[in-house]
Each structure stands twice: as C-alpha cells, then as structure tokens.
Amino acid sequence: MRVLGIETSCDETGVAVYDTARPGIDGLRAHAVYSQIALHAQYGGVVPELASRDHVRKLLPLVRQTLDEAGLSPADLDGVAYTAGPGLVGALLVGAGVARALAWGLDLPAIAVHHMEGHLLAPLLEAPDLVPPFVALLVSGGHTQLVAVDAIGSYRLLGETLDDAAGEAFDKTAKLMGLPYPGGPQLAKLAEQGTPGRFRFARPMTDRPGLDFSFSGLKTQVLLAWKGSDQSDATRADIARGFEDAVVDTLAIKCERALDAAGCETLVVAGGVGANRRLRAKLAAMAERRGGRVCFPRPALCTDNGAMIAFAGALRLQAGQHDDAAVRVAPRWDMASLPAVRAGEG
Length: 346
Description:
The protein is of the alpha/beta class. It contains 10 helices and 10 strands.
C-alpha cells in the first residue's frame, strides 16, 4: 500500500509517500519539508494566519515534488493520510482539505492522523522490531508527555506538563536571553560552549512522587540569574548549559520513574526536543545502566514531517480503518480516544 502523508499542524509543510511493501525506513519512498521559520522570525513566533496562507501556497507544489521524487503518479497511490490535530485550526484545515479532495478525486481511502501519534510511531520506521508494550516520551514545543503504549493505538497518559512544554521552555528561555528565533536550537547550540555546574537550577517536581512536569518556574530562575549577571557571552553560554542540564535531568528522572511504573525497559523518545544531543546521551546511558533499550528517530524525523503521518496512516489504513468524506479537524484531541490497531487486521 502506497500512502501519501500530509502534515500541516503548525509552521512546517510536510509531505511523504510511504510504501508498506518495503520494511521500515526503506518504505519511505520520498519526503519533503518546507519550513516557515524565515516567515515568522520577524514576529518572534508563529502567526497562525500567516502559517495557514503559506501552507496554501506550498502544499500542492510539495505534493507534486514528492510524487516526482518517489517516481509515482497520483494514480499509483492507495491511500491518503493527513494530520487532523492537535494543532492550529487554520493550518490543519489546509492539509485536511487538500487530503480529502485528493482522496475523493482519486477514489482512495483517507485517514485522519493524530499528530502526536505520528511522532510516537516515527521511531518504528527505523526499529521495525520494536513492539509494545513500551513507554514513550513525547517532547516538543507544544507537548511534554509520558505515555504507556500497550498496543499501537492503545495509549495511557502517565504524566504531562502542567504549564510550559520542554520545547516551549527552551524557546522562551532563549528569547529572554536575547537569542534569535527559533530560540530552542540556538540555546542548545550555545549550551555546548557553557561551563557545566557554574549555574545550577532546580530539577522541577523531581523531589516528589508523580510523573507530571513543570518548567515555568525553571524559566523564572533563569530569568533572575540572567538579570543578576554580567550578561556577557560566556555567562549566557553558562546559563544556557545550566538550563539545558536541568531540563535533561528532569526528563531523564521522570522517564526512569515511568519505566518503573509501567514495568518495562523499553523507552521511545519522539518530538522536536528528541533531537537534543545531551538528552539522547543521557537517556541512552540510563537505558544501558538498566539493561533496557531506548529508541529515537533520526533528527530529521523528530521535527514535524510528512513521513511520520504517512507511516502512522498506513498502519491504520492497512487495518481497514478510514474516515468518511467530511473535512474535520481537532485542534485539541486526546490521544487516549484513538481506536487501537489490532494485530492481524488488514
């Protein structure tokens, strides 16, 4: 089954074709991502209306480009998958409208995909032997969640952020220290030059039981440290390192607790912050110490992309799931409400 995947949940237009006849990452026939970073940089953040308009401008040319790179025509497709939420409602409607129109015009089944399920399943592209149960850390600009995966499509929320997501905290902290947009990657790069231990910040909510997160207080600690410092380049790097260490340690502590709570030793990490090198090293060391396993997607598949949507959609289409012709999106969507993909279906 050849599935076209479309991702337009925020400020990146992603398109991919996944072929289930090929195993794992080999099934990814082609994929392309167009980022709107330059468009939104002058505003210091994503402007929803501008994001929607840019998706309108770029999506169909990107579909044509991706099909050409895959050596396919629209008639060669067997299904269409698209992000229906969560995300910006206008941006979601662009992708959903195009996907539903393509499916209707080509007489193909189409499936609405949960954006975070796409992230969660992305590591399976490069680890096809990975099967539930496992624990997933979904960590991005909009989400920080620990999820118990009992089966594909069967998810239990173990913990989530009570305020800022980790990626959001990275971006806001970078902005308050004067780093350019998008701040999170800039802060992580700067932290590589920082002196470990010169600034030590709290590891929020690790001094009590539970699997929830909170990063807003950490952001305030950084602000106070920055305002009270000499604000030199060296100090900026040292504060960035202290902040990054605090976030990474907090995520690692909570992941270990989640593995204990779920009674398993396999951890999957996905989402934009999953590309952070220090986080990857910390979690890999934890897994090795426990005799377990941690799986990450390659950095290009950590950020929003069409490949994860094509893959997640292909799993559900193969299982016989599809949606009617209505164009529906869900800016807020509980992943626990998704139907399971049962073994042997399809």
